[in-house]
């Protein structure tokens, strides 16, 4: 790049320099273009596409042959594999095209057949013939929506609408048995990289998690008591590292020291280890291997066949640093690798700065759905192969075979289909081959709100267990800048561990390594093999490390890096290859592996942006796309490591000659959820975090196809609005089209006392006019079951008012008024609690012999399904769908709708983490009104502001107020003031004044009660308010008497079971302290589980009451002489009896009080 | 008002208050108290003296009577209409206490009856708008009919021509690929009452099929509606239909008040503001005058050329003041120069009618309601 800079310097047009500086090029337009080509869930799609196009082929190619063990001439070879179009076989050979919406509605899996081309040999001993078969399905692969295999791929809005799909839906999830499942992005520590950290004991260790196709292992070199040891699972104890070196053939200590570096400080640090080795009397490779042999873990089933020396050797070869391949027993690369590890460790000892940070984003890799599915597929594919092999051998081993073996007929279809489906629907990834047992990998895509859905697909779930009480991984990392959203993380136990991607983040996929490696050698990397240990660490030469593998060294690292970057910018190597010169470690790191996070940045030469006015014009005219910018070397992707080599300026005008890159837009450091907040940079940071969590609970529109969906629970707002104060992110993700809130005129004042503790006072007239109305839809389903005896349920015409049955009565017609003549509730009918929504009858006998004759009416018992809603809630049957489920039963689904109006206790929130419940609803005439006759929709208590410090909310109010008065949507993008994506308060105030408001947004209000002006100016204006899904109607609960638990006869627990309200331990303590003994007696026994028992005063055991004799009798004394009757909690009686059953005899001693 | 009534009665009895005697000098309040009593001072920090002094003996110690006098009221009270159209009106109401003005406002908002759709019988609705939402939307459509011609429909009443107006809406989108916007124009008045038959009745009784209303006569035969069919406020979007979607319903409007639901409120809104008074406490001349004129976005100030070529700021349009407080914002000296005030007994009243009744009628109705209330209080107290 050096020469490049010089060139541009000489070309400088001096006239241009003399000219006044033009305003910086507005690069904002790049963001929507980026999202157009890469999209919000592009990482998922890319990853899945990579799997579908490349990875799956690799896997099949790696295991392409099934050879019979019995007759090695018989084999089957997979020539090619691909994923077909999503279709479903409809039983009778008819293949039907699938669309995602259809799968959602009919509980199917959205999957496409995996088609392979095979060639296989047929025949037996004498002649073999080779035959071929194309397009053999070996299973069905669940298809990610909007991926290249999906029918939605590349469709425009109209076509999507025709398929019943929402154009704003991001895709990136799967549909498994009708439920939408997302594979969460998994965060992991990078594989195959040396990481130096201190462990719990304060020892410094260097660890490498190796992962190759064949093995996965973890190698740790630890410094303990000044000596260095190797920790490996296969060895029972720590092995002195010098022994390992010797075992690998580095017999001379001098060689080791040379390899590590001649610095005397290193030598001094290594000395104790060398001494220890010598004291153990190990000097040769042979001795070392023998020593290692003794330390190998004795596996219980270790077969004695493998030679003794072989064992240690093979561990060193295959397990120890598995990522460094040993070719032809050449251990030298491994030795160098160990030497580099040791050197890095010693550096860390000498200089604490050299320590690696586990939480550094550059040391992390994100595992995406494609990778996870490919793991699963590989395992299942191998299982399938072994299964085929086993079957083939079975067939072949049978002497009498009628027909020659046809391999292609043996290919089972369900191993892969079922395996993939199960993993995706349960989220349990059990891959035995890699000893992988991970739970909760998939989650149901929450469709509570559009934002919630988007939030799900950008979520990153951690690998650590959440219970750990460490702060390190939870803290905000500076390296997260621009990659992971600093705001969006849940509160509570997963705080800081679960993260979300920022707006412009891209996650890389794997890239071919071979060409890159040879390119490196071409560019002057000196091969490791040709270097002596001494030469390795000569000053001014840098090690070149490619994907964790030491390639060699380079004498002019900066030049090398610049050339690599130049090649990348002109598109000769992949755009996601990162080149990172680490000056501290004297290394050049080149990475092309998948799972790195990176983001686009504008390239600047000597601080001058490469993007000029005409480029952006081309973009606006549609002549260019974002990819053109990348191709032309105007924009490039930097990953976290390479960012360390860049000097990135936030704005063009802030660039200095040293600047190498310029940010596209600062607001892109936030994610989707945080992007909704206007002026987030004026808020206290936890408020933004709270809003990120709450935005997901806000009711609004879910998707354009929301009324065609059959979700189990659907919350909709009746009149959703787009926010008056928008941000660029809102426009980019389509929140302005699928809003989740309403612009309420808020007066910040105290009113009526029902607004304390964040409660909100609402205007009744506003509610009358539709503010905050919402629709809650619940799904009820019924199945017309078929039974094994060929009988099935039936749905009957309901009895009408005038129908009379045989007994001359007609008891149920009232409950079945809403049913149509087909026995199914009619859409649009009002359904009341205990109404029947399907008049179904089931046969009494469902098992046994198939019944051929038609059943009589008496053979059926009614199995009607009744609606269990709360009284006073008037629900409506919204939709009824009929479809056949996977067992070919008729499945009937009902959507039951309830339209609600806000009531006291419903939860609302602004976009600034300020939630509150509705405290009271007040008539409009009692509300204050302004000089212009404006009456607020809600009143918020000003005490919400000082401690929360949500200045953004105040600016939102001002901005919205200016917006409504001048008729232009105002903007409040994060950090947007300098670049014009957020309006400045000064400008807003000017607009307000122009329209006759006070510059500070405070109005002169009259009290609606007295009619006099209020004694203060009131801060009033519109704020976007969200209605959250928590509503009193779903939560309120009280009970007098009700159901009890069978076992203990105590009241049931929980609202769903109409349970009692518990007087808990602490409440009981209070009552005891107060001395209200009778109250405790009443609460804990009389109102709970009183029980009358007969106690024998003689033996103290419980007796029973004989109803014939009308006396109590003690069963152990066999008489009723000393029986007393008393009351006891039933639970106590139960305890006594349970103890008795365990041979413990509790005896009651009765005394008079 | 009742107070002043008693006053009159007292005088008729021959009892004359000493303060009322013509030869007793009526003491005037000192100017600073007078200001506090009659004006709201809108300072930068907050409005001051917002409340009114009601107590008759509030100024007794300085010998000023503060009691409200009927004849004073009669002499001072006036109403001036400044703007009047079919839908809205603005008038000044001078010489009245804020509580009374507020009472009118509250009555207008909440207690004047109108007709509004309360019950919607939906025969068919295949549009995307849910039945409840559709009904809610219909409810909010103003109906242009004089509510005084109707009775309230109480719980046990059957809907008849005296208490119910029935509208029909039957639309279907027939054009393929087109959206049909259903507006309130499509609501047609059914003067003969409901056309929907009660299903249960139709089966058994052979007599005249019963509908959901029992009109004894057609409403258009009544003199009030003869040449004057009942209509609703036009061009309000009710719904949008896609191809093949259909709405068939009947909407029953009944009489009600805004207190129960805002749809019965006869006004879109109704409010008053106190008369702005802008006082320049010192002469503002020259550049400062220019600055002052520039400051005000409502253009309250004007510049007057004095004879000697100097320029002086004057308050030309005090009514235009929106109380943005721009003129007193910049520093204490401006606050000293300009005083923004509100006259406590001068109300600029605005009524925006929804169309049922013209705004001036609404106001007179409101006065009647207040009168009735007073009478009720008097009769209940006596």
Sheet of most strands of chain B? 6 strands, antiparallel
Q: Sheet with the most strands of chain A? A: 6 strands, mixed
Which class best fits the helix and strand makeup of chain A?
Answer: alpha+beta
The CATH architecture category of the largest domain in chain A equals Alpha-Beta Complex
CATH class identity of the largest domain in chain A: Alpha Beta
Q: How many strands of chain A?
A: 55
| Weakly predicted, low-confidence segments of chain A | 1-10
Low-confidence stretches of chain B: 1-11
Mean pLDDT of chain A: 86
The CATH topology of the largest domain in chain A: Rna Polymerase Beta Subunit, Chain: C,domain 2
Helix content of chain A: 25-40%
Strand content of chain A: 15-25%
In the CATH hierarchy, the architecture of the largest domain in chain B is 2-Layer Sandwich
CATH structural class of the largest domain in chain B: Alpha Beta
Q: Judging from the principal axes of the Cα atoms, what is the shape of chain B?
A: elongated
Radius of gyration of chain A: 37 Å
What structural category characterises the helix and strand content of chain B?
alpha+beta
Mean pLDDT of chain B: 86
Helix proportion range of chain B: 10-25%
Q: Largest interface: which pair? A: A-B, 46 and 52 residues
> What is the distance, rounded to the nearest whole angstrom, between the alpha carbons of the first and last residues of chain A?
99 Å
């Amino acid at each position: 790049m050096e020469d490049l800079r010089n060139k541009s310097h000489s070309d400088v047009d001096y006239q241009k320099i003399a000219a006044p500086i033009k305003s910086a090029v507005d690069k904002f337009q790049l963001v929507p273009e980026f999202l157009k080509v890469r999209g919000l869930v592009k990482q998922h799609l890319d990853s899945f596409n990579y799997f579908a196009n490349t990875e799956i082929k690799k896997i099949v190619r790696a295991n392409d042959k099934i050879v019979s063990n019995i007759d090695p001439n018989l084999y089957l070879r997979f020539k090619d594999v691909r994923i077909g179009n999503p279709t479903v076989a409809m039983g009778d050979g008819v293949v039907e095209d699938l669309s995602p919406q259809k799968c959602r509605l009919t509980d199917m899996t959205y999957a496409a057949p995996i088609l392979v081309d095979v060639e296989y040999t047929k025949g037996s001993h004498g002649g073999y013939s080779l035959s071929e078969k194309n397009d053999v399905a070996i299973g069905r692969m669940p298809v990610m929506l909007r991926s290249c295999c999906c029918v939605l791929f590349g469709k425009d809005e109209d076509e999507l609408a025709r398929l019943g799909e929402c154009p704003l839906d991001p895709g990136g999830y799967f549909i498994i048995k009708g439920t939408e499942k997302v594979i969460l992005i998994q965060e992991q520590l990078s594989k195959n990289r040396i990481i130096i950290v201190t462990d719990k004991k304060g020892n410094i260790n260097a660890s490498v998690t190796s992962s190759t196709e064949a093995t996965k292992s973890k190698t740790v070199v630890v410094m303990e008591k000044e000596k260095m040891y190797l920790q490996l699972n296969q060895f029972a104890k720590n092995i002195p590292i010098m022994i390992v070196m010797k075992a690998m053939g580095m017999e001379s200590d001098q060689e080791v020291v040379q390899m590590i570096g001649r610095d005397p400080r290193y030598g001094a640090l290594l000395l104790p280890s060398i001494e220890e080795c010598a004291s153990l009397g190990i000097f040769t490779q042979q001795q070392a291997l023998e020593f290692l042999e003794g330390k190998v873990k004795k596996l219980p089933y270790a077969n004695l066949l493998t030679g003794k020396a072989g064992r240690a050797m093979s561990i060193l070869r295959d397990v120890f640093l598995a990522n460094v391949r040993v070719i032809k027993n050449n251990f030298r690369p491994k030795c160098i690798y160990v030497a580099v590890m040791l050197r890095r460790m010693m550096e860390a000892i000498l200089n604490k700065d050299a320590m690696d940070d586990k939480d550094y984003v550059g040391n992390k890799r994100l595992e995406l759905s494609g990778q996870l599915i490919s793991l699963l597929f590989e395992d299942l594919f191998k299982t399938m192969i072994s299964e085929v092999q086993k079957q083939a051998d079975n067939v072949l081993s049978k002497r009498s075979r009628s027909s020659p073996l046809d391999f292609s007929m043996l290919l089972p279809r369900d191993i892969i289909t079922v395996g993939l489906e199960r993993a995706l629907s349960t989220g349990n990834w059990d891959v035995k081959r890699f000893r992988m047992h991970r739970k909760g990998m998939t989650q149901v895509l929450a469709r509570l709100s559009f934002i919630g859905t988007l939030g799900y697909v950008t979520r990153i779930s951690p690998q650590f267990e959440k219970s750990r009480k460490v702060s390190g991984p939870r803290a905000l990392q500076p390296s997260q800048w621009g990659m992971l959203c600093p705001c969006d993380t849940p509160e509570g136990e997963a705080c800081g561990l679960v993260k979300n991607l920022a707006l412009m983040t891209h996650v890389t996929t794997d890239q071919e390594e071979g060409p890159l490696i040879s390119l490196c050698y071409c560019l002057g990397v000196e091969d490791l093999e040709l270097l002596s240990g001494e030469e390795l660490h000569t000053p001014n030469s840098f090690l070149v490390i490619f994907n964790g593998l030491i390639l060699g060294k380079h004498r002019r690292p900066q030049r090398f890096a610049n050339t690599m970057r130049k090649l990348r910018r002109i598109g000769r190597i992949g755009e996601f290859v990162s080149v990172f010169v680490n000056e501290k470690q004297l290394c050049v790191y080149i990475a092309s592996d998948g799972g790195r996070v990176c983001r686009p940045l504008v390239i600047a030469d000597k601080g001058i942006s490469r993007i000029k006015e005409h480029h952006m014009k081309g973009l606006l005219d549609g002549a260019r796309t974002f990819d053109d910018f990348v191709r032309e070397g105007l924009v490039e992707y930097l990953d976290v490591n390479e960012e360390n080599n860049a000097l990135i300026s936030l704005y063009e005008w802030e660039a200095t000659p040293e600047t190498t890159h310029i940010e596209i837009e600062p607001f892109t450091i936030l994610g989707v959820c945080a992007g909704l907040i206007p002026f987030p940079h004026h808020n206290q940071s936890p408020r933004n975090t709270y809003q990120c969590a709450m935005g997901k609970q806000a009711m609004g529109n879910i998707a354009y196809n929301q009324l065609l969906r059959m979700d189990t629970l659907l919350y909709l707002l009746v009149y959703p609005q787009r926010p008056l104060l928008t941000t660029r992110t809102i426009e980019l993700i389509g929140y302005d089209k699928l809003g989740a809130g309403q612009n309420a005129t808020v007066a910040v004042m105290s009113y009526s006392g029902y607004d304390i503790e964040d409660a909100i006072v609402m205007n009744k007239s506003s509610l009358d006019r539709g503010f905050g109305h919402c629709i809650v839809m619940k799904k009820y389903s019924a199945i017309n079951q078929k039974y094994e005896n060929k009988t099935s349920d039936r749905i009957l015409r309901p009895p009408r008012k005038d129908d009379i049955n045989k007994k001359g009565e007609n008891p149920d017609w009232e409950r079945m008024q809403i049913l149509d003549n087909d026995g199914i509730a009619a859409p649009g009918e009002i359904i009341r609690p205990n109404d029947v929504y399907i008049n179904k009858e089931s046969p009494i006998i469902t098992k046994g012999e198939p019944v051929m004759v038609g059943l009589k009416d008496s053979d059926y018992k009614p199995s009607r399904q009744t609606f269990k809603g709360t009284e006073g809630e008037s629900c409506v049957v919204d939709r009824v769908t009929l479809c056949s489920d996977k067992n070919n039963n008729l499945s009937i689904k009902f959507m039951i709708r309830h339209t609600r109006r806000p009531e006291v206790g419903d939860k609302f929130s602004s976009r600034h983490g300020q939630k509150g419940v509705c405290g009271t609803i007040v008539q409009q005439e009692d509300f204050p009104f302004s000089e212009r006759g404006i009456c607020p929709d809600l009143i918020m208590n000003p005490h919400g502001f000082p401690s929360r410090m949500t200045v953004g909310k105040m600016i939102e109010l001002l901005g919205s107020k200016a917006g409504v008065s001048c008729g232009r949507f105002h903007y409040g993008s994060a950090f947007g003031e300098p670049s014009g994506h957020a309006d400045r308060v000064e400008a807003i105030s000017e607009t307000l004044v122009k329209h006759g408001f006070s510059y500070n947004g405070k109005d002169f209000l009259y009290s609606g009660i007295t009619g006099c002006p209020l004694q203060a100016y009131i801060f009033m204006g519109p704020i976007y308010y969200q209605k959250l899904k928590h509503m009193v109607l779903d939560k309120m609960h009280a009970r007098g008497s009700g159901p009890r638990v069978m076992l203990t006869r105590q009241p049931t627990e929980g609202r769903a079971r109409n349970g009692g309200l518990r007087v808990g331990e602490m409440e009981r303590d209070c009552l005891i302290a107060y001395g209200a003994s009778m109250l405790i007696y009443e609460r804990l026994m009389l109102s709970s589980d009183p029980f009358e028992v007969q106690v024998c005063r003689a033996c103290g055991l419980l007796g029973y009451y004989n109803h014939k004799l009308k006396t109590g009798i003690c069963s152990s004394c066999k008489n009723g002489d000393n029986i007393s009757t008393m009351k006891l909690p039933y639970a106590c009686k139960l305890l006594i009896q349970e103890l008795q059953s365990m041979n413990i005899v509790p005896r009651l001693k009765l005394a008079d009080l | 008002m009742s107070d002043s009534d008693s006053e009159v009665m007292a005088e008729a009895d021959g009892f004359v208050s000493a303060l009322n005697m013509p030869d007793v000098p009526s003491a005037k309040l000192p100017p600073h108290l007078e200001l506090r009593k009659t004006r709201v001072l809108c300072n930068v920090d907050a409005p001051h003296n917002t409340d009114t002094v009601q107590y008759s003996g509030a100024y007794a110690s300085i010998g000023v009577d503060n009691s409200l006098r009927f004849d004073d009221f009669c002499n001072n009270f006036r109403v001036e209409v400044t703007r009047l159209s079919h839908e809205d009106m603005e008038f000044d109401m001078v010489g009245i206490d804020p509580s009374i003005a507020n009472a009118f406002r509250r009555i207008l908002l909440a207690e004047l009856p109108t007709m509004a759709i309360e019950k919607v019988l939906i025969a068919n609705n295949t549009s995307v708008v849910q039945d409840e939402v559709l009904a809610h939307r219909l409810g909010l459509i103003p109906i242009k009919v004089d509510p005084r011609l109707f009775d309230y429909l109480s719980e046990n009443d059957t809907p008849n021509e005296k208490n119910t107006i029935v509208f029909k809406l039957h639309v279907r989108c027939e054009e393929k690929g087109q959206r049909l916007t259903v507006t309130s124009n499509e609501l047609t008045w059914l003067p003969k009452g409901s056309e929907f038959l009660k299903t249960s009745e139709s089966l058994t009784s052979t007599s005249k099929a019963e509908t959901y209303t029992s009109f004894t006569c057609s409403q258009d035969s009544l003199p009030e509606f003869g040449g004057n069919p009942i209509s609703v406020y036009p061009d309000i979007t009710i719904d949008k239909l896609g191809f093949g979607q259909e709405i068939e319903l009947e909407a029953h409007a009944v009489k009600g008040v805004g207190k129960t639901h805002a749809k019965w409120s006869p006004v879109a809104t109704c409010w008053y503001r106190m008369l702005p008074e802008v006082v320049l406490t010192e002469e503002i001349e020259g550049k400062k005058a220019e600055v002052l004129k520039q400051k005000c976005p409502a253009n309250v100030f004007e510049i007057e050329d004095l004879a000697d070529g100097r320029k002086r700021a004057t308050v030309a349009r005090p009514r235009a003041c929106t109380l943005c407080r721009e003129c007193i914002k910049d520093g204490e000296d401006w606050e000293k120069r300009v005083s923004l005030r509100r006259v406590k007994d001068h109300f600029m009243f605005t009524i925006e009618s929804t169309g049922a009744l013209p705004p001036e009628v609404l106001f007179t109705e409101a006065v009647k309601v207040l009168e009735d209330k007073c009478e009720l209080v008097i009769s209940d107290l006596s």
